[in-house]
Design goal:
This protein has one domain. It is 37% helix and 26% strand. It contains two helices and four strands; from the N terminus they run E-E-E-E-H-H. A four-stranded antiparallel sheet has the order 1-2-3-4. The longest helix is centred in the middle third of the chain and has 19 residues. It is flat, with a radius of gyration of 17 Å. It starts with a strand and ends with a helix.
Length: 104
Amino acid sequence: MACWASLHFPFNRYVFELDKDKDELVIHYYNDPLSYTDCEEYKGKDSGIIRVPLKEFTKEIVKLAEDYLELLKNSEIPEEYDWRDDLQEYINDVKKYYKERYGE
């Protein structure tokens, strides 16, 4: 299974691939502006693949999302833009998946 995203970073592209056999998240990245650099330190680093253990990635994403919600807890957000409940629902789904997959 794979999913493409820009993550709202202009001129960057990411493909997230789930490798169930290795229990890894494989992230394919491409940074277009970096491909034009003349800086030797960054030449050839405009694209690549990063492999991340799915278990650790999932833990970190849940923690980041929960911390973000905590930060927004007392914020006044107009109702039509308030997606905090939706995010909490997504977090709960991920926690459920995590518990089913890893038993923790």
